[in-house]
Design a protein that fits this description.
Chain A contains 12 helices and 11 strands. By secondary structure, chain A is an alpha+beta fold. The longest helix of chain A is centred in the first third of the chain and has 19 residues, at 90-108. Chains A and B meet through strand 7, helix 8, helix 9 and helix 10 of A and strand 7, helix 8, helix 9 and helix 10 of B.
Chain lengths: 338, 338
């Protein structure tokens, strides 16, 4: 691999906006897509930022993502709403449903939008941040295509179903953005390209044994759930909640499609601002951060972070230095935008 | 260890009811405590069933658990309420707050009760089942005393914070009831007593290395979070949510007390019945179970279960055969009740 080139966030947004305009998105949507992909890259999540843009374009071209639709409300009861994504772009649907969950939470204390028939939201942390910026706690999750075996089973039949939580904080939001797999396949591929072993087992090899060898794990896509049987159960539960609340497609149904599309998601916002004392709230969160953060390291050089801290640091660094983008990826994106 | 004796659920409830009456609980509360401890034992969770009763009595005697108080509402906004447990028994407070979250959900679609200043709820699955029996989805969690290091840190500063979800289902509710630690310390002690190694690493040894040796892990109580850094972050997030929403004590504050008391919990119920089509809902859940269940095993003899399936099977078995209770534990409980 050649050295990455440095791209500024302004430049990336500009190029991506013209790319999405070329693909017939109206201006506001093209800008929203461009800024979301750029923000994810700025936070260091290349796999769901700039590196993912060519696949998004492919999904538009194969009809999985529709350019001319967006999510709309189907049903509502109290603080719960069911929305249909109408196969629109996952990012645009996610922003809209997060906004709606925020609005419901501000009216009623909590708001839940269950969204079916949408597409990959890319980085769930984007919408967690959106909710936190609005002063809301958020709990968001999505199902996916199958990529992990249910514990005890041989084949991948459950998804890595990202689970995302945000807690607003003045000195930097606390944001957990985790897939239920121990390692993303993108990460496993990075280790493979570098000829390294994973630090812990990450999936099963061709002999059905747990392995930390990325070469062998990638022979079959069978990722290890976090906590073995526990993550397997959590993944199944998240699929059930998303499918049930949205009356949408489960990982099973998604597995029957040629592409990962028409997925199901949940956006829950909680508005603790109504519980009055902002100072108390900040003090309570900071008390936990102070206790668990910058503590005596387990091994020399170890550091503890609060959830979301590292990606926030990455953003500051990349904003200053530019984002280290693969030359091949950037060339591909430029070519698509012409 | 001598062979366990067999106790019927009727017998256990009778003995426990008289025990709790002796400790001055009014009749209805004594019965609720007795049936909850018995149900947990019936589901195979001895550590938070019958085996835990002597410690509960100790907590009454040392003043951590107050017999004469129960949870009451402090504040409310829309579908969110803050309750204070007044140091009452965790089980009784949990049942009351779950009932309230169910009622809110039935009125408003969702209901959240954040409870502070309560005591150990024993088995979270009890309240998940209570919600599911009422037709509600529930998401429940609690903080605890510190028993796992935050990832990268040397000392235990975060709790194993059980996370519990239920989804109502006619043919048997789906119930996830998991601590964020890979293994409960009770389980690690079982392996130690049997002179066996854990099947996977479960904590750190005295040299700060991950270990599957229960002897060495129990030298210092430093449990491994599920998914390493991921579970560490999830545990911190759950502590923040419980502390913030209840304006209660965090794991940090709990660590400063001589006993694990005055903890913080969240009871969220979602009532999907309002989304009308019961048949559709059952079909959607069963579709996921059918896909992930009784599949080709990874290794000969492996079985996959849906969350909650095994404990439901255990209950049927123990209801028929009696519960295998340690003679020493039973004698201790009998002695306390006299």
């Amino acid at each position: 691999m050649s050295d990455p080139i440095r791209i500024s966030s302004d430049k990336m947004e500009e190029v991506l906006t013209s790319l999405f305009l070329k693909y017939k998105f109206p201006k506001a949507k093209a800008q929203l897509l461009a800024s979301t992909y750029t923000e994810s890259t700025l936070h260091g999540v290349f796999s769901h930022g700039i590196n993912r843009v060519p696949l998004f374009i492919e999904y538009i071209e194969n009809g999985s993502v529709r350019v001319d639709t967006e999510a709309e409300k189907v049903e509502s009861f109290g603080s719960i709403e069911r929305w249909d994504g109408n196969q629109g772009p996952g990012i645009i649907n996610a922003v809209k449903c997060t906004d709606r969950a925020i609005a419901l939470a501000k009216e009623q204390g909590m708001g839940l939008v269950a969204l079916r028939n949408t597409n990959h939201w890319m980085r769930g942390g984007s919408y967690a941040r959106q909710a936190a910026d609005a002063g809301c706690i958020s709990i968001l999750f999505t199902n996916t295509q199958p990529n992990m075996p249910p514990w005890g089973g041989k084949d991948s039949r459950t998804g890595n179903n990202p689970f995302v939580v945000s807690i607003p904080r003045k000195a930097g939001h606390v944001i957990l953005d985790m897939a239920i797999s121990q390692f993303a396949f993108g990460k496993i591929n990075d280790y493979k390209l570098r000829g390294k072993k994973l630090p812990f087992p990450g999936g099963w090899d061709e002999n059905d044994e747990l392995s930390n060898d990325p070469e062998r794990i990638t022979l079959k896509e069978r990722g290890l759930p976090i906590g073995y049987w526990k993550g397997s159960a959590l993944s199944i539960i998240l699929d059930m909640l998303a499918t049930l609340l949205s009356a949408g497609d489960s990982t099973f149904k998604i597995s029957q499609k040629p592409f990962e599309t028409g997925i199901s998601q949940v956006y829950l916002c909680i508005y603790p601002g109504i519980l009055k004392d902002q100072d108390l709230q900040q003090r309570l969160i900071n008390e936990i951060i102070d206790y668990t953060h910058n503590v005596e390291p387990m091994h020399p050089g170890d550091t503890t972070y609060y959830p979301g801290e590292r990606s926030a640091q990455t953003k500051i660094k990349f904003k200053k230095e530019g984002m280290p983008v693969s030359q091949a990826v950037w060339d591909h994106v430029l070519q698509l935008s012409m």
